[in-house]
Amino acid sequence: MNILAIDTATEACSVALEVDNTLYSHFEVCPQQHSQRLLPMIDAILKEAGVELASLDLLAFGRGPGSFTGVRIATGMIQGLALGTGLPVAGVSTLKAMAVEAAQKSTGQFVAVASDARMGEVYFCVYKQSDNGLETVVPEQVCPPTEAVNYLSELGEALNNNVIVAGTGWAAYEELQQWLNTQGDGETAISKAANTEKKPAVTLPNAAFMLEDAKEAARANTTTSAAEVKPVYLRDKVTWKKLPGRE
């Protein structure tokens, strides 16, 4: 299956193309430049592979969660590409993409993803590795770091010395870093834990790790048309209310 995937949900901007089982991938960290960089990156990767967009079988995009503006940029771009070609579209979770990449880079039965959502919250989920790939243990949601720690604590000893972490939330919030530092042998020094990463294995999503989930959506016939493409924000509140006396 020949497929193009894009993602702009975070500070990173990435494009991945799989043609005849060959992977082409571009990844840049370019805050606030996504709208300028995305289309040139798409054009460049298609030229590199020597294919036309219309000759592909499927389009995919990082549906979120992430920055509201970033998610909208990818959504708008994929809709335009789908309208112009008639290709089906698969939306892929940015959190799942980070988990997939982290699971390939590190050893551990569980993958916990916490991405900084600002406003004192994180986008959070937990996956478990199985013969069928990553299975959801804690569904993706937006929550305070303390609530994320509660979820992790409820999983208890199953995570001890057996968890990979991904996302920007671990460095952004002390509560999550403190939890991470307690993993392994009951010690505060995380170096005691052989399989637990002191730092996230992955911090930002990469479109290259959205391809397999997109293919699975095609196999399961859960792709959509351009008109049906929907982003996932997880949060309705966009900005702080800063006026005096306002909550």
From TrEMBL:
Subcellular location, in the record's words? Cytoplasm
In which broad location class does this protein mainly occur, judging by the first location in its UniProt entry? cytoplasm
Report the superkingdom from the record: Bacteria
Q: Which family does it belong to?
A: Belongs to the KAE1 / TsaD family. TsaB subfamily.
Q: Which organism encodes this protein?
A: Alteromonas genovensis
Q: Name one Pfam family in it.
A: TsaD
- Output this protein's name: tRNA threonylcarbamoyladenosine biosynthesis protein TsaB
Q: What NCBIfam families does this protein's entry cite?
A: T6A_YeaZ
GO BP terms, alphabetized = tRNA threonylcarbamoyladenosine modification
User: Which positions fall inside the Gcp-like domain?
Assistant: 28-240
**Keyword annotations for this protein?**
Cytoplasm, Transferase, tRNA processing
List the molecular function annotations (GO) for this entry: transferase activity
A Gene Ontology cellular component where this protein is annotated is: cytosol
